Amino acid sequence: MTMSTRYEAEEPALADVEAMKGPALIEFGTPWCGHCQAAQAHLNMALSAHPEVPHLKIEDGKGKPLGRAFRVKLWPTLVFLKDGQEINRLVRPVNDRTIKEALASITD
Predict the structure, then answer these.
(1) Half-sphere exposure of residue 42: CA atoms within 13 angstroms, side-chain side
(2) Could you count the other beta carbons within 10 Å of the beta carbon of residue 13?
(3) How far apart are the two ends of the chain, measured CA to CA in Å?
């Protein structure tokens, strides 16, 4: 799967996320967030080497249950999952190296 380019307002249920098989990346943020915008090039570079990793780009905010379930406080927050379980997390990544390392933790 290629990198998602749009934050989805509708989020999956936590049970659906927990039932996912294999690696996945959930990105919590908003389209107007400067930190989120700055991270996009780094995400694109890191994800280009992992087309097999589903990338869910979820618009987060007050009252959004999935973001609260993952205790998201700052954007963007990247949650790296394997078989529905959180393996790694990055908050406001500033380079593709750290994203690549976190992707390796769910794909190796």
Answers:
(1) 22
(2) 11
(3) 17
Q: What is the pLDDT of residue 102?
A: 98
Interatomic CA distance for residues 76 and 88, integer angstroms: 14
Pairwise CA distance, residues 85 & 108, whole Å? 15
pLDDT one digit per residue (tens) for the chain, 108 residues: 567 889 999 999 999 999 999 999 999 999 999 999 999 999 999 999 999 999 999 999 999 999 999 999 999 999 999 999 999 999 999 999 999 999 999 998
Task: Give ∠ CA 26-59-100 in degrees, rounded to 5.
Answer: 30
pLDDT value at residue 3: 77
Rounded CA-CA distance 29/90 in Å is: 12
Non-local (6+) Cβ contacts of 104 within 8 A are none
Is omega for the bond preceding 76 within 30 degrees of 0, making it cis? yes
Which pairing describes strands 85-91 and 55-59: parallel, antiparallel, or unpaired?
unpaired
